[in-house]
Amino acid sequence: MFTSGRVRSRSNIVLGALVVSAVMAATPTQAASPAPLPFPFLLPPIATYEPPASAPQMINPREDEASAYELPARLRRQVVSYATREAPGTVVIDTPNKYLYYVLGSGQAMRYGIGVGRDGFTWSGTQSVTKKAEWPDWTPPPEMIARQPYLPRHMAGGPGNPLGARAMYLGGTVYRIHGTNAPETIGTHVSSGCIRLTNQDVIDLYSRVNVGAKVIVLPMERRADLGRVTR
């Protein structure tokens, strides 16, 4: 009886040990430690954010965007009959009538409405285009600053610049043919001697005029042939 009892006791001990071992194997006592980061602890790159396809895209202002102001019919860009001895590519500025003619040849010209110098600031003569610039900077000449000291000394080019989208510089003068962000001034005496067009028109003229082109500015007392619209 004694021997049999000791055998059963040993069996119970062995069985208990097996159960404890099985439980410990099934239930880990602590979480595995993470693997150490390699020196110098480099982190994975952060993914670049990409907006969804439906997100609005920022765009630059369009140079050919139609102005909210509509010019009177006579001041709109149009091909007209224009008799002249000047060679194609010549620019004729009809100061009294507020027109600029770009001679096409074969008795035709492209006519644009313009703004001209106010009283006391008109001028006349023959010049040539010595420089062209897109979205030009504006540096008022000393004479203009003396008359209007509140003007900025320099303004970077852009949609808010008074010279507008394009400028064509005339000889060694301070005068330019340029655009404007105030289209309602076309057809008036408004400038200090520069010739201004709407931004849409000056972009068109700029694409036609070459550096070296002849520019004829007619005086106030002389009126050029108004030209007949070509149908």
Describe this structure in words.
Pathway: Cell wall biogenesis; peptidoglycan biosynthesis. Residues 1-31 form the signal peptide. Pfam families: YkuD (PF03734). The chain is an alpha+beta fold and 231 residues long. The protein is built from 3 helices and 12 strands; from the N terminus they run αββββββαββββαββ. It has helices at 2-26, 142-147, 199-208; strands spanning 78-81, 91-94, 99-105, 108-113, 116-117, 125-134, 166-170, 176-178, 189-191, 195-196, 214-217, 228-229. The chain is globular and about 45 Å long.
CATH level-1 class of the domain at 75-229: Mainly Beta
Judging by the overall fold, what is the CATH architecture of the domain at 75-229? Beta Barrel
- The helicity comes to 10-25%
From the spread of the alpha carbons, the general shape counts as globular
Strand-residue proportion: 15-25%
CATH fold-type name of the domain at 75-229: L,D-transpeptidase catalytic domain-like
Main beta sheet, described?
10 strands, mixed
**Largest beta sheet: what is the strand line-up?**
10-8-7-6-11-2-3-4-1-12
Q: Tell me, rounded to a whole number, the average pLDDT.
A: 77
Count of individual helical segments: 3
Oligomeric composition of the shown chains: single chain
Kindly provide the radius of gyration, computed on alpha-carbon positions and rounded to a whole number of angstroms. 41 Å
Spans of at least 5 consecutive residues with low confidence = 1-9, 17-33, 37-67
Structural class category: alpha+beta
Give the CATH superfamily of the domain at 75-229: L,D-transpeptidase catalytic domain-like
| Amino-to-carboxy terminus distance | 133 Å
